Amino acid sequence: MSVFVGPRASRGTTGSLGGKIVHAFLLVFLLLIGLSIVMIVLVAPGTTAPCSSGQPCGAPPSAPAVIRETAWRSSQYGFSLDYPGSVGTVSQQAPGRLVLATKLDGHSATVAIQGLPPGTAPSQAIAEQVRGLKGLSQLARDGNPAHQLLGAGVGYVSGAGRAYVADLTSPQGSQPASVVSEAASNGHVTVTATVVGASSESGPRSGLYALADLIINSVQWPR
Amino acid sequence: MTTCSSCGGQTPEGNFCVRCGAPLAAGFSGQSRGRSQFAAAPNEGVARPAVVSTLFPRLPRDSRSSFRLALGLGTVAVIVLAALRLFPVALIAAALLFPTIVVLYLVDANIYEDEPIWVMGLTIGWGAAAGIAFGLLALAVEPSVGSVIVNGTSQYLVVQGLALPLCGFFVLLLGPLILFRYQRFNDVLDGVAFGATAAAWFSGAQAITYGIHLIGAGLRPGGAVLPWIWRLLSLAVGMPVLTMGAASAACAALWLRYRSPARDANALGALGHPAVALPLAGLLVMGGAVGETFLPAGGWLAWLAAFDVVAISLLRRAIHVGLLQESSETPIGGALICPNCGHLTARHTFCGQCGISLQASPKLPGLKQAHGGTGDPLLGPSPETGS
Q1: What's the total number of domains in chain B?
Q2: Any chain B CB within 8 A of the CB of A200?
């Protein structure tokens, strides 16, 4: 078979941009990235100054009105707590564990209280409970100094506290979540309390943290 | 001139029949669609699931390399932004990667000919509006944090994993279908372009809308880098390629069945029937999305890659068959320069040198009237007249 191979034409005759596409793409893409950086900086929340331990740190958070206190007691570990039944509902309970669901300002959140055997160090208890939380992705320690827990404890017993960031993910995308966990031990039982909520509704002066403080401070240790 | 063993027509001597695209090599027999070279990119095999040549079939060979490079650079940019912990910026970059490339493709290949504004606005606008609507819907019906913490991501299974992806897919298809009634957009590749455009903008708009709270959390909101990279790659490439491939395959089947000559309507067999093609495309998108609800971030990316291969393969077959059904009895015209290989070829349906379908080229006035037209600025001597 004879093969006719004609002369090659210059790219300009095809009407295609050819190699200029890369330049056009980089220009447009970098422009979009730049615009997104400007937009994110403009809508970003203001920087919150970190509080100092033992020092006053602004106005107290606004706590939701307590209409009805509901008591719950761990049949396994003997500790008990109160929670406002008007804003918190039981999502899951077990002899040593209670998970409360709440909705504040249209955003759902959860407070999980869990007992652990004596001898479990508070930091170890926090790691164990956070590891057991389902549905969180991209979990990492929160490095923001303003988000660190100062004077962490449970039921007025000093302990440990840690702040994390994570995402609640679905096929449609990601939503940022804040996770804070406190734990303390009285030698008979170790109790951890973990709060998970949307990042936009979390923080030291948020209604969610005020509600969590109410519940965590209400813990009565077994004698 | 020689006689093509596939279509029986007279064709200039060369590598391929300019009428049906069949190889003129002695060893080839049967219908031209049985050839191994992809009709829109003859240097690639039909079975090769190449993303760029399948989603953007009108690109000449040189431009395909540029688009591959652009796609690669965009993906690297997303990874770098994530590695720098600029997650909200990386999310926006990931969501806009394919929409940006699609717009460049539409302009480069002149898909919308001389009516670019309203047609481009319709396909892009419809896809973006549907994506925003389904992003807001997904936020409105999301399960409570408490139920997710207690029960895990299975809480997203039914609504976010199955119902929304399936419904969203069929809603995004309504945009291309509006253009279905315009006779001027009667090529299979027109349907492919409309489906891909609407799908790319749907995916991007949905990801940004659903992640709007992340965008409001500051430049560096924190999080584990590696899972973020997997997730961003899923949102930047995995999910858009799947949605674009499925939407384009569904549109290709519709266009081939109802916009092609009657003899071509059944070329794709059962897979080309709308009653099969549309549900299959919807199931592909739904199957890819639902993996997120039970797999870790890296696992979901691998899951999506498998679905991407299936969607791209289906689309590639539809394009290949659609283009190779274009054998025509019309006379062979003068010579023109092939936009793909740059060699002179007789003006008809396929390039006699590289075998590309001349329909799979940027839309140029000269190529639009390829069957027997004269007066082309690129003309050389006519192989039939010798003039």
Answers
A1: 2
A2: yes
